[in-house]
Amino acid sequence: MKRLFPTTLLLLLLSVCLSAQDGSSLRERVYLATDREVYVAGDAVWLSAYCVDASTGRLSAFSKTAYVELHSAQGLAGTAKIALDGGRGAGRLFLSGTLPTGNYRMLAYTALGAAEPGFDSLTGVRTLSVFNTLSAERIPDGVRVVGQVPAAQGYPTAGSLELSAESGRITVANHGREAVSFSLAVRHADGIPAPPGDRMADFIRGVRSLPAGAGAVPGRIPEYEGEIIWTRVSGADARLVRSVRGKVAFLSSPGDGENVYTATIADDGTATFYTANIYGEQEMFLEIEDLSREQVCHLEVVSPFADFPVGEIPQLALCPDYAPALRLRSLGMQLGRNFDADTLLDALPVRIHTVLNGQERKSYVLDDYRRFPVMEELFVEFIPELRVRRIGERPELQVRMRDVTGNLYFPQGTALVMLDGIPVSDHGKILSYDPLLVRRIDIDPSSVFLGIRRFSGVVNFVTYKGTLPSMQFEDNVRIVDFQGCSLPLAFTGSALDENYPDYRQTLLWQPLLKLEPGQQLELNCKMPAYSGAFEAVAEGLSDSGEAVSTKTAVRTDR
C-alpha cells in the first residue's frame, strides 16, 4: 500500500507548528533575478527566484511555489508561477505584444508570506522597462521624452564570485568560504540604461530591516508540497451547495497520471486540492463525483494572485537615440517567436508525481497484439490484470492485485480508471470506447491514496493523440484553462542551427547555478550574428544569506 501525497492533517499540523512560534514565525520573502531590465513587448522575461527566511536572510526550503505579478500604473499586466525547491526556482514570464511602452513593476511572494497581516509587497519589487516597437501606445503619463541618453545606474559588486568572459567562454570562480547559489546572464549591452531599482543587496537589507511581526494568519495552510488550488462551487444556490457537501471532487489534466488530485466539498461549497505543483499551461478537468440530475453544478478555480500594490512607478525616459538598438531588439524578438526559439532551451529538472509509479507497473502497447473492436475483448484475450464485473446496473473495471502472501486476487474496491490521465468514474464509458483510438494501457496493481480516497489499483488508457478523442463527459465536468508553474529552463543556444538568423539579445541564461568554495565553472556561450558590446552578469546569494553580484564586459575578437 502506498501514500502518494501528504494528508490534510499533516499540512494542518505543520501550519499549527508555524503559527505557534509566537514572534519568530517563518516569514518568507522572494527576490527575482532577471536576464535583463529592459525589454520589448513580446519578449520573455527570464526569472531566477530566491525565497528567503526573513529572520536570517538565508534560503527557505519551506514553500514550494512562488507567485509573480507584473504591474503597470494601470493595473496587473501579467502573472507567472515558479516552482521552488530549497528556496530556489526558475521560469519565465511572457510579455504580451500589446503592452504599451513604459516602466513596470514586478514582485513575487509565497502564499505563506502573502498571508501575513500587513504584508509589505514592496520588499523585493523590481522595475522593468518595456518598449513596444510595433505600436505607438504608451502608458498614460508614464513616458517622458528626453534629448540625450540618461546616465546608466552603476552595477553593485558584492560577494566572492569572480567573473571573466570572452567570445565563446564564460568562467565563474568562487573565491569565498561559502557556497553561492546564483544566476548568470550574458546579454547585448546596447546602451539603453536600466531603470533605477533594487538589486539583491537592497533586497537583503530590506528583509533584515523588516519590523518584528507575526507570520502567516493562524490556520493558513502552507504550500509545503506544491501549489494549493482553491476552488468553489459556482452557479449554485445555497440549497444545492448543501446537497453536494461531503462529495468527492477530482482535479486532473491530460497526461500519464501525473496530475490527478481529489478533494472533499466543504460545507461552504469550497474544495481544496493539495498538489505537488502542476507545470505549464494546462486544460484542467474539474468534476464532482456522483451527482444526480438535480445536483448538476460545477467547480471554478479561485485565482491565487493577490494583486498587491507596487508603489509609485517611475516614468520611462524615452530618447530618440534608442531607435537603432530598439530596431535590433525588435528583430531579435520577432525572429525568436517565428523560428521556434524553444529549440535553444535546455530543460532543468522538475519534481514529477504520478499515480502510476508502482514497482509492478505494466504497460501493454496494443499495436504489439491482435486488435479487437471491443474493449472488453482485450482484457479477455491478453490482459489478465483487468476484468469487468457488473455491480448492480453499472459495470466496474477491476485491477488484479497481490496480497501479502503473494496470492493474486481481484479486490472489490473501486479502481482508479483514467483516459489520458483524466479519471473516468463511469467505467461503462471506457468499455464502450473505441479501442482503435488507444495506443497503450498502463496498469499499476497497487493500493493508491488520493486525499481521503483509496483506490484498488490504477489503469490509464493512453490514446494516440493524448487528448481524449471522442470521449463525452457528463454535465458535472468542467474544463478550464489553468496556469501552472513555469517550466524551469536554461537558455543556452546549444542546439543552434547554423542557418538560424541569430539576433538573440540574451545570449545565455543559467538560472540555477551553484558553486562551492574554491570551485570554478566554465560555460560555452555562442556569440550572435551581429557585432556590438556584450556583458556577463552574475547575481545570487551565499549560504549565510549575503548578497553576491558582479558584472564584466565580454571580450570579443571582432
How would you describe this protein?
Strand 23 and strand 24 (about 395-400) form a beta hairpin. The protein is about 10% helix and about 40% strand. The model is unreliable at about 1-25 (pLDDT under 50). The protein has two domains: about 1-215 and about 305-350 and about 490-555, Macroglobulin (MG2) domain (Immunoglobulin-like, Sandwich); about 360-475, Ferric Hydroxamate Uptake Protein, Chain A, domain 1. It is globular and about 80 Å long. It has about 550 residues and is mainly beta. The chain contains seven helices and 36 strands. The strands form eleven sheets. Strands 1, 22, 27, 28, 29 and 30 form a six-stranded mixed sheet that branches. Strands 3-9-8-5-6 form a five-stranded mixed sheet.
Brief summary of the model shown:
The chain is built from seven helices and 36 strands. With 558 residues, it is mainly beta. The termini are far apart.
What key attributes describe this structure?
5-stranded mixed sheet, single chain, 6-stranded mixed sheet, 2 domains, mainly beta, 39% strand, 558 residues, Immunoglobulin-like, Ferric Hydroxamate Uptake Protein, Chain A, domain 1, 7 helices, disordered N terminus
